[in-house]
């Protein structure tokens, strides 16, 4: 029988510390990248004065429109395509958004070895499956039919 | 005394200014009806992001004072009264809820109020179903999602009106599953000046409920604190403080999974997301300061009123497209 403690477990503290750092980095970068975008320091794919023409469209129509009008790519800019476009102000903002969305996955990956090392097998398995599911979601493999 | 009055007046003015803006925004958003490829209404491009920043700032204050998450206010209000398509509003809503959870999560975990052991099994179910919900929500026609969103928001209003809370629920025996997973803990309760030794029961029905909660969170881009807390507290028997803190932390996992689906499908426009995040964050900071001085309980009624209005508006939009209204 494991003793119950008032203090957080080592895994919980480790998780909290990584989450905190990821959150601070993500939010800090968000201010920076948005400033580069909105003040025109980095040229965006969709000019800021034209963005209002697109944000009222369903996502599929929006992607087709920006691809036709600006990107001229072979496929729509979904999944990790943004990586090829980070030199442009609007897509540069995906970096902090991805950090904020991805830090939880990192937290899971980091605590898993400790859970198994402490023979906390059930929680280790649960954390491993969840991490795999989150990685699957992040991979871009899961696609929808669209509207 | 003066501080209390000032805080109350600030709360009232914030709530009323938001309420007063809604009809104007509704007219403006309808005036900016979707006309693909053309400038909608001649408005300068920066106007809507600035209005979004102001509204989300007020929303952040009201969310704190009303005791609700930013996500649950964001999606119905922004989709109902702004010209942005629901796909982008849901994507932004998830990121708003995610950022709030990321900001609060580390402190709650370190204080051992959010329980990682309680969150891990729940997160497995909720995050998996949030992915399914996000995929279904993006595949369905917009008016169907809008209609369902309206119904869900009205359901949340009903929960807010009726749900009870239990500071420390009576849990005579931990069930077998929670015992096997060692989901238990101790926290110090300052009001009674004693350590509370907590455990949970009804783990399996609770986990099944998170199938629905996760699905809805992903489908509508809502944070799910409104549902997490009653299930963790009333159904599974976790103390209220542990339930609220674990729910907030849980959103960082549930919303992460759904956010990736929206992100990978292209439903993220930085010009919407960043002002929303900044507005909600700054508003929350101001809200916390006001909350320290006074807790205007009427704001909760105001939140219920705003949500009911936004829920009816979403249903009206959905039914109009179907030709029923």
What would you note in describing this structure?
The complex is a heterodimer of chains A (147) and B (325). Chain A is mainly alpha-helical. Helix content of chain A is 61%, strand content 0%. Chain A has 5 helices and no strands. Chain A has one domain (10-139). Chain A has helices at 10-38, 59-71, 89-92, 94-117, 121-139. By secondary structure, chain B is mainly α. Chain B has one domain (2-26, 47-321). Helices cover 74% and strands 4% of the residues of chain B. Chain B contains 12 helices and 2 strands. Chain B has helices at residues 2-31, 47-66, 70-81, 86-110, 116-139, 142-162, 176-180, 203-220, 225-235, 240-264, 270-293, 298-321; strands at residues 184-189, 194-199. In chain B, helix 5 (116-139) packs across helix 8. The radius of gyration of chain B is 20 Å and the shape is globular. Chain B starts with a helix and ends with a helix. Mean pLDDT of chain B is 86; it is low at 1-13 and 30-38. The chains are: A mainly alpha (147), B mainly alpha (325).
Compact overview of the structure:
Chain A has 147 residues and is an all-alpha fold. Chain A has helices spanning 10-38, 59-71, 89-92, 94-117, 121-139. By secondary structure, chain B is mainly alpha-helical.
Q: What's the number of domains of chain A?
A: 1
Give the fraction of residues assigned to helices of chain B: over 70%
Task: Please tell me what the overall shape of chain B is.
Answer: globular
Distance between the termini of chain A: 53 Å
Percentage of β-strand residues of chain B? under 5%
- The number of strands of chain A is 0
Classification by helices and strands of chain A: mainly alpha
Basic shape of chain A: elongated
Oligomer: heterodimer
Integer tally of domains of chain B: 1
Unreliable stretches of chain A = none
Structural class of chain B: mainly alpha
Biggest sheet of chain B: strands, sense, closure? Answer: 2 strands, antiparallel
Number of strands of chain B: 2
Tell me the strand order in the biggest sheet of chain B.
Answer: 1-2
Q: How many helices of chain B in DSSP terms? A: 12
Strand content of chain A: under 5%
Largest sheet of chain A: none
